[in-house]
Amino acid sequence: MLINIKLRNLLLIIIPVSLLFGEPSTTLPENMPLHTKALWGENGLFRKLNFAPNNRQEELQLRVKMLQLHQKVALGSLGAFFYQSYLGKQLVDGNYDNYDRHSSMSKVVWSTYMFSASLSYFAPPGMKYTKKLSSMRIHRFLSWVHFTGMASIPWLGYNISNSSSNERSSAVKIHQNVAYATLITMSFSALLSFLPY
């Protein structure tokens, strides 16, 4: 009788633990985004180049590490982007004291942003992908918007310094609007990453 109670108690502990920490699925998920399928699918680039981990469990562990680092670097990049936007607003208002700092910060923001984006973009596939609307689907959609903005901001800044005096105010306005739209979508995307999926 005492052995049966101990066995039952042991099973009550083992079964939930095995469900939580048991071997994950060895198959790849359905509905993977196209770029993920091209990189991590059965015949994906990383598998052909032997860059993929040895098994699906190691892939998922790598994914978690990459996405956690993505989140930390992205938040740092977002903070630096807010500061750079503040400096840019001072330039627009006629205070050119921080012109060099704004220029230097642009390199920091752009580099950390692109590093963070690459961590997310090249991460192994998750457990599943759903077509339902969720915070992560909106996060991924917004990432395309702020990536496009971030990719164009350096060119728009370069365009300001190479524009004639007649075109300069228009070039500044375009640069400023794209930077603000990028900052807003990046901020909203960051907030969504803290919500349940």
Basic shape = elongated
* Average residue pLDDT: 87
Task: Give the strand content.
Answer: under 5%
Total DSSP E strands: 0
Provide the helix percentage: over 70%
Question: By helix and strand content, what is the structural category?
Answer: mainly alpha
Domain unit count:
1
Major sheet attributes: none
| Order of H and E elements | HHHHHHH
First-residue to last-residue Cα separation: 45 Å
| Cα gyration radius (Å) | 23 Å
What's the helix count?
7
Stretches where pLDDT is under 50 for at least 5 consecutive residues are: 1-8, 14-25
How would you characterize this protein structure?
About 75% of the residues lie in helices and about 0% in strands. Helix 4 packs antiparallel against helix 5 (about 100-120), helix 4 (about 55-90) runs antiparallel to helix 7 and helix 5 packs antiparallel against helix 6 (about 135-160). By secondary structure, the protein is mostly helical. The longest helix has about 35 residues, at about 55-90. The chain has seven helices and no strands. The protein has one domain.
